[in-house]
């Protein structure tokens, strides 16, 4: 068969086209992550305002236990830290962020519940937390009933404080503020007597340098909160890979290091790393 002559310009164009196809182009990677690595970026949902768990620092970096866990998992999925795009996902929007495909996974104090499992799939759990009380270091509050007549703070929309009032201390004076930072500031000034939410969240605040030694957790374990990593419903491939990564993180003691690094200054008496699929009711 006789070959046609190809001009130099056409040959150059052909080479460029083949190169672009092979490399996938600048935008060829899956921005949400494919679950198998190799993409340009992976988008992971976290909280931006929870010290010790998910916090955006003033310099734009991110810190916290959830961040450390997600970074380890992403590495096992084939993504380096500089390939992670952290996306703020507020509690009310977590399920929507996954269903829309805004993020590949969410690690944001995301308690596994039957209601949520109907909408998303969960890897893990990777931490067992409990609802607790944070009080001043010299406080005489030791039991839930000690809150009768005391000012108890939680955030607007949370059921934590109301549960305490309904089930433990009916005479507690509930204070609902816009965020936990406001509750902590009130506790520090003496305007409030206690703050309630998950012990991991409370420990994260108490571990901050500006609060070091000022607060203590009562250790009441008022509820069980199984934190999982949320993925889009039906994404079994990513789910299984995340579970494998979590098991490896525990076996390599990287999980213990993350707990110590983020909660150590608060003397947080954490539960051992939970077994994958082991939900504590």
UniProtKB/TrEMBL annotation:
<protein>
    <submittedName>
        <fullName>Glutamate ABC transporter substrate-binding protein</fullName>
    </submittedName>
</protein>
<keyword id="KW-0813">Transport</keyword>
<dbReference type="Pfam" id="PF00497">
    <property type="entry name" value="SBP_bac_3"/>
</dbReference>
<keyword id="KW-0732">Signal</keyword>
<comment type="similarity">
    <text>Belongs to the bacterial solute-binding protein 3 family.</text>
</comment>
<dbReference type="InterPro" id="IPR051455">
    <property type="entry name" value="Bact_solute-bind_prot3"/>
</dbReference>
<dbReference type="InterPro" id="IPR018313">
    <property type="entry name" value="SBP_3_CS"/>
</dbReference>
<feature type="signal peptide">
    <location>
        <begin position="1"/>
        <end position="22"/>
    </location>
</feature>
<dbReference type="InterPro" id="IPR001638">
    <property type="entry name" value="Solute-binding_3/MltF_N"/>
</dbReference>
<feature type="domain" description="Solute-binding protein family 3/N-terminal">
    <location>
        <begin position="41"/>
        <end position="266"/>
    </location>
</feature>
């Amino acid at each position: 068969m006789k070959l046609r002559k190809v001009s130099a310009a056409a040959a150059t164009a052909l080479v460029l086209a083949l190169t672009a196809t092979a490399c996938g182009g600048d935008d060829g990677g899956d921005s949400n992550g494919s679950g198998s690595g190799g993409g340009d970026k992976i988008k992971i949902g976290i909280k931006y305002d929870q010290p010790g768990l998910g916090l955006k620092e003033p310099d734009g970096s991110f810190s916290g236990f959830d961040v450390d866990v997600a970074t380890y998992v992403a590495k096992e999925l084939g993504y380096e830290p500089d390939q992670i795009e952290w996306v703020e996902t507020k509690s009310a929007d977590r399920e929507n962020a996954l269903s829309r495909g805004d993020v590949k996974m969410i690690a944001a104090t995301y308690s596994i519940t039957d209601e949520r499992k109907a909408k998303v799939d969960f890897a893990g759990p990777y931490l067992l937390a409990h609802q607790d009380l944070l009080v001043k270091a010299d406080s005489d509050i030791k039991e839930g009933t000690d809150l009768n007549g005391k000012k108890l703070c939680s955030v607007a929309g949370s059921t934590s404080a109301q549960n305490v009032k309904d089930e433990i201390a009916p005479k507690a004076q509930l204070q609902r503020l816009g965020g936990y930072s406001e509750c902590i500031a009130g506790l520090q000034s003496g305007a409030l007597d206690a703050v309630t939410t998950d012990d991991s969240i409370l420990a994260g605040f108490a571990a901050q340098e500006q609060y070091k030694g000022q607060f203590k957790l009562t250790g009441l374990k008022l509820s069980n909160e199984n934190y999982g990593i949320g993925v889009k419903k039906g994404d079994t491939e990513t789910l299984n890979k995340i579970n494998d990564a979590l098991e490896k993180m525990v076996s390599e003691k990287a999980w213990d290091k993350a707990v110590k690094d983020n909660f150590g200054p608060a003397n947080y008496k954490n539960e051992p790393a939970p077994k994958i699929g082991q939900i504590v009711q």
